[in-house]
Structures are given as structure tokens and as C-alpha cells.
Q: What sequence folds into this?
């Protein structure tokens, strides 16, 4: 272990430069947020992940946000274990009929103000699973969605951009300039 | 001693089924096969339904593969699961989807159908009305001062949904029962009638972490059905992608297992290496997970010099850093204290369930689809298949460590001998249309184990029926056995060391 720790002293950091939030996401968000919610939310956001039927691809890239390259916590984001602690629900997958109730109940258990981010193509409209007897469709069929991050799966940097937009919007910066 | 090929020869051979034979057999022959499974002579590789028919893929002692099919009069057939428990959940799933009724099945609870589809037996010739939603009866555990812990379907971490019902005595787990099916998307239903390209996209989205392996299994099944051979360069590129996927997943898993034993430094360093693999994959093939890069007939993107360079420097970096991490794992007593002798799967159980991947190989089951039945280009590559006997979390970590080393060597060999030429062959069904439907199947070794793909192409070239069997079907039940007698706090560790797929299982 000493060798590893020593090496980490002399190696350059792996961490990426912070990305700029994408304009489309900022616009979408500015529309979604109201002034009161912006004031009540601080600079940090607690995120609760919910897989409502995903193939697990989006989860892999969500995990990657925690690695040394993206280090999501430096922006004030953290993944939390309970919806009771969450500001944001990050929902993946086409919502399956077998997960509809669990998603709704998790949303109900999350205190206001809260935002829902639909992650990935399936979360938008069911993707290639739309129309199945076992699938409800996109996340917005079950709970209101504030922001959609496209991709199959969205790469971590895109998720980060979307979340930074969420944060900027929530703090009123982007909301004021774009709104 | 019966041989699978005799059983198949005695039945009615199905034409145009490749590469292994399929035969329609009598109920007597079906029962004979079930007997061989129950005796532990043969292994169950897959079991799936169709309207009024059930199929079983078998592996006999000589490691010959074949499919036997049985007509189900009135939807009934003699249950395999009553004599051979690994078939239980597969039979329950086929019952939910097709309304097949296995006679003598000891567990008739619905499995994938949670009573929420608004239809019952959705893939049967005549689907039924909505199934009544009823509460699920978990298996009982009786004794003094037992308590239950329900977990899921929504879990605390960033993982897939499923329900675990623990019965514990103090801290010790007396019984764990899994309830799955939450992410059932109806993939087999969506594939029926779909053009091959669309079905290939669905296959690649069956289990996100194994998108390469699923695409490969599906593509090879289509190619077998149509008698198409992809160009050599495509075959080698596909193996390259498969090994990169294996590397990414194994590196991620090794770190995540250590993280569940409160050893975050391994997680951080393995996470960096995993990210490097994904970036190299992105540079080489244009997608971090290499999704939709394998297609029936070949590969969708070629490798250029920049891509080759990024993979070569990736291999060099892992070779340089990984041994230090292995040494750290091996020399940290507090970590070994958690992983050694935890979550043991007995050798007999792994054999009975024909468990693939690191779950099987950590418990003495020497099976790897790349070697047996084998497929190109692995027949021209040198690699070892590591096998251990201990069957604990530690053994499952070590199998992954050894497989990382093997995959690095395979990537080297592939890059060194990558043939030039085209990367895609025409996949056309038109010439064969007159002969009627054509069937193909394939076994592909994903990082988690062997994935079975079986399909029938109609005369118009669309998919009539496709079944994909994830390795997790034969691993999830072993997790229930592995945790027994362990403490509740060791469950995340055991679970991570299995890393079964929910989506691949639920379909």
C-alpha cells in the first residue's frame, strides 16, 4: 500500500476539467424551475438513483461519475441511499409495469422541493422497448420529469453537464439569464 | 450410458438448425433426458417455451450440445424442475409467458408476471385476460426468534431492482429468497416479428454490462441460421471487443467487491483502470460500452491505427498498475478476513446448476464457452481457463484477477495477428426463403459466463422466435445457497462477488 500511496503523491491528478453545462439542458431547466425552489436549494444536490427498468447501461455510467476522473462530489453532488435524503431522483430505463408502483412510491417518499432527471433514451420515451406489453413507456408517464439527459447510455461527461445545468438553474444563475 | 446424440437421432430431426442438432422427441425420451440431468450426468444449458412447445438445450458428458423439443398437448408437459431444480425458474418463466403447464412442478408461483401486465401469457397463441394481482408467498422459515428483512426492489446503491427476503436469526441468515422480474421488458415479445437489425439492437440492450457478449451471441446465432461466415477481420475484432468488455467488468468488480469490504483504495484504483478501458474502447470503436458495434454478418466499426495505439497503451498501463493492486489485495489481512471462507458455493452445487463464469470456475466447474464448444478466433489463440475449488468470495476475486491477465494476453495476441480485409458480410435471407424457417443458436462467453442465444428466422427474414438465456439464471439460485449461515452484513459482499444480472435474467 505504501508504494501506491507514494506514487499518488508524484503522479498528476486524473480529474477532468469541469464541463460547461449544455445550453439545451439549461433552457429546459430554466423553464422547469420556479423562483421559490431556487432560493430554497443550496449549492449541493443529493441524488437518488432509481432503475425503473433499465438494461443497466445507464447505471454503469452513473457509477463512473464517482471515479477519480469525474469525481462528482467536487460539484456538490452526491448519491444518497434514501429518497428521504434526496433532492433529485435520477431515473433510468423504460418504466416497466412491474416497477411502476416502486417508482411512484419512491417519488412520493421524496420531500419537496424535488426534481426528476430522466437519464438515457429509454427514460425519455421507452426507447426500443416502447410498445411492449410489459413497459409503461418513458418516466414522465409515471412522475413529472424536469430534465432529460439523452444517450444510450449518456457518457458520464454528458450526465455531469446536465447536472451542472440543474444546479445552475436551481441557483438562479442560468434561470435569470435564460429564463 | 445414454448419449445425447442417440436421443436426438431417435427423435424427429429438425432441418435447418445449426450448428448443433435439434429434434422433436417423445415424452419418454424427454423423461430420459430429465433423468440424466437429475443424475448429474448431463447439464441444463437452457429451457424455453413457445406456444404449445417446450425446448431444452443439453450438454452431455462428452460435452456434446443438442436441443430436444417436446409438443405440449393442451399446454402440458412433464416438469423438468421437479427432478432437476435448476430448471425451476425457467419453467416458471415459460409458464408466465406462454401459459405452459409443467406437470409436477413443485413451485407454481408466478415468476416474471407480477400481475401488472394487463394480460396473462402474453406470448401464447391466445393471450389471456389480466392475471389477478396477488401477494407473493415467500417460502417459510420456522424457528425461534427468527425475523425477516425485506430489501428492494429499489436498493440503496446504484444497482438494478430486485427483492431480497432475508430470514435471520440474530445476524445469521437462515434463508434468503430472491424475487425477480421487476425489470421484465418483454424483450422476447418485442423480437417476435422484428427485422434482424432491430432484434440485434434489442439483444444488445438485454444486459448493459454485457452488450458486446449479447450482440455476439445474437449475431452468431443469426449467422448460423443463414449459413453466413463473417470476414476474418470481423471475427477477430469481435473477440477484441469481447475481451475489452471482460477487462472493464472484471476490473470494476474487483474494486467494487473490495469496496464492500470497506477497502476503498482498491475501488478507486480499479475504477481508474476500468475508466481507461472504456476510454480506449471509445477511441477504438466509437462507444464506451461498444454498443451496436457487433452486428449479424460482422462488425459495425473498424479499428484504425489510433484505436490500435490506444488499446496498446491501455494494455501497457494495466500491466504496469494491476500487479500492485493484486499484491495489495493479497497482502491486506483485514480484506482477506472478509473474503476468505465467505459466501461459499459447494463444488457439487455449481456442477448441478451448470453455473458458468467466475461463479462456476471458482467452485471447480471447468467450463468456458470460448474453449468448449469453442468458436473462432479462440481456437487459434492461447489462453488458460483458471479454476479454483474453494468457492468463496476470495476465489471469485482470484478467478477475475487471473482472467484479467488472460484477457490482456488475448488482446495482445489479437492485435498482433489481426487480419486485414472487409469487416462485414451480407446477411441475406432471400436465397433461403424457399426452404422455410431456419434456426440457429450460439453460446458466447460473456464476462459473467456463457450466454445462450437461440432463434428462428421466418421465410421473410424476420425473427419468429428468439430466446436469450443469461448466465445469471443458473447463478442467482446459488447466491441463495452461498449466503446461508453467513451474517447479514456479508450479503453485499457475496452479492457483489456474484454480480448477477437483473435485466439479463428478467428479459
A:
Amino acid at each position: 500500500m505504501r508504494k501506491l500511496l507514494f506514487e499518488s503523491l508524484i503522479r498528476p491528478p486524473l480529474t477532468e476539467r469541469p464541463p460547461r453545462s449544455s445550453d439545451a439542458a439549461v433552457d429546459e431547466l430554466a423553464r422547469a424551475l420556479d423562483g421559490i425552489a431556487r432560493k430554497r436549494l443550496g449549492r449541493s444536490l443529493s441524488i437518488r438513483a432509481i432503475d425503473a427498468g433499465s438494461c443497466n447501461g445507464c447505471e454503469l455510467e452513473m457509477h463512473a461519475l464517482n471515479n477519480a476522473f469525474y469525481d462528482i462530489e467536487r460539484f456538490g453532488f452526491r448519491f444518497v441511499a434514501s429518497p428521504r435524503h434526496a433532492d433529485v431522483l435520477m431515473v433510468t430505463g423504460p418504466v416497466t409495469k412491474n416497477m411502476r408502483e416502486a417508482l411512484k412510491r419512491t417519488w412520493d417518499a421524496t420531500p419537496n422541493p424535488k426534481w426528476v432527471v430522466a437519464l438515457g433514451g429509454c427514460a425519455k420515451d421507452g426507447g426500443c422497448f416502447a410498445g411492449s406489453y410489459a413497459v409503461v413507456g418513458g418516466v414522465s408517464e409515471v412522475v413529472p420529469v424536469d430534465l432529460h439527459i439523452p444517450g444510450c447510455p449518456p457518457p458520464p461527461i454528458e450526465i455531469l453537464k446536465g447536472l451542472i445545468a440543474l444546479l445552475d438553474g436551481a441557483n438562479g444563475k442560468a434561470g435569470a439569464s435564460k429564463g | 450410458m445414454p448419449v445425447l446424440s442417440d436421443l436426438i437421432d431417435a427423435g424427429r430431426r429438425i432441418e435447418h438448425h445449426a450448428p448443433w442438432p435439434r429434434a422433436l422427441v417423445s415424452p419418454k425420451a424427454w423423461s430420459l433426458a430429465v433423468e440424466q440431468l437429475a443424475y448429474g450426468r448431463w447439464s441444463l444449458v437452457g429451457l424455453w417455451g413457445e406456444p404449445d412447445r417446450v425446448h431444452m438445450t443439453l450438454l452431455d458428458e462428452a460435452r456434446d450440445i443438442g436441443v430436444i423439443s417436446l409438443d405440449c398437448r393442451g399446454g402440458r408437459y412433464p416438469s423438468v424442475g421437479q427432478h432437476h431444480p435448476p430448471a425451476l425458474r425457467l419453467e416458471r418463466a415459460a409458464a408466465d409467458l406462454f401459459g405452459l403447464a409443467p406437470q409436477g412442478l413443485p413451485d407454481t408461483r408466478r415468476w416474471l408476471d407480477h400481475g401488472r401486465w394487463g394480460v396473462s401469457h402474453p406470448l401464447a397463441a391466445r393471450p389471456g385476460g389480466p392475471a389477478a394481482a396477488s401477494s407473493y408467498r415467500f417460502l417459510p422459515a420456522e424457528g425461534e426468534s427468527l425475523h425477516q428483512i425485506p430489501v428492494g426492489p429499489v436498493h440503496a446503491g446504484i444497482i438494478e431492482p430486485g427483492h431480497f427476503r432475508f430470514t435471520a436469526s440474530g445476524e445469521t441468515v437462515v434463508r434468503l429468497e430472491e424475487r425477480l422480474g421487476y425489470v421484465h421488458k418483454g424483450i422476447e415479445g418485442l423480437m417476435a416479428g422484428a427485422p434482424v437489425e432491430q432484434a440485434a439492437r434489442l439483444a444488445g440492450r438485454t444486459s448493459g454490462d454485457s452488450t458486446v457478449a449479447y450482440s455476439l451471441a445474437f449475431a452468431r446465432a443469426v449467422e448460423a441460421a443463414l449459413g453466413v461466415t463473417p470476414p476474418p477481420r470481423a471475427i477477430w475484432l469481435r473477440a477484441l471487443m469481447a475481451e475489452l468488455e471482460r477487462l472493464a467488468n472484471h476490473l470494476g468488480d474487483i474494486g467494487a467487491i473490495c469496496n464492500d469490504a470497506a477497502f476503498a483504495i482498491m475501488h478507486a484504483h480499479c475504477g481508474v483502470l476500468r475508466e481507461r478501458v472504456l476510454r480506449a474502447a471509445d477511441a477504438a470503436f466509437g462507444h464506451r460500452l461498444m454498443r451496436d458495434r457487433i452486428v449479424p454478418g460482422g462488425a459495425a466499426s473498424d479499428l484504425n491505427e489510433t484505436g490500435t495505439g490506444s488499446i496498446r497503451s491501455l494494455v501497457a498501463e494495466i500491466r504496469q498498475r494491476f500487479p500492485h493492486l493484486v499484491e495489495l489485495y493479497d497482502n491486506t489481512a483485514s480484506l482477506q478476513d472478509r473474503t476468505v471462507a465467505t459466501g461459499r458455493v459447494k463444488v457439487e452445487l455449481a456442477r448441478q446448476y451448470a453455473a458458468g463464469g467466475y461463479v462456476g470456475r471458482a467452485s471447480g466447474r471447468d467450463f468456458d464457452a470460448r474453449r468448449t464448444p469453442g468458436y473462432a478466433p479462440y481456437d487459434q489463440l492461447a489462453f488458460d481457463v483458471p479454476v479454483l475449488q474453494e468457492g468463496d468470495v476470495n476465489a471469485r476475486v482470484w478467478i477475475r484477477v487471473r482472467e484479467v491477465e488472460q484477457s490482456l494476453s488475448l488482446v495482445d495476441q489479437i492485435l498482433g495477428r489481426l487480419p486485414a480485409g472487409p469487416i462485414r458480410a451480407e446477411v441475406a435471407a432471400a436465397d433461403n426463403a424457399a426452404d422455410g424457417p431456419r434456426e440457429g443458436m450460439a453460446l458466447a462467453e460473456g464476462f459473467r459466463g456463457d450466454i445462450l442465444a437461440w432463434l428462428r428466422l421466418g421465410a421473410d427474414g424476420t425473427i419468429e422466435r428468439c430466446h436469450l438465456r443469461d448466465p445469471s439464471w443458473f447463478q442467482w439460485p446459488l447466491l441463495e445457497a452461498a449466503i446461508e449461515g453467513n451474517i447479514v452484513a456479508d450479503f453485499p459482499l457475496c452479492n457483489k462477488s456474484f454480480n448477477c444480472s437483473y435485466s439479463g435474467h428478467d428479459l
In short: The CA atoms of residues 25 and 162 of chain A lie 6 Å apart. Chain A touches chain B through 49 residues (CB under 8 Å).
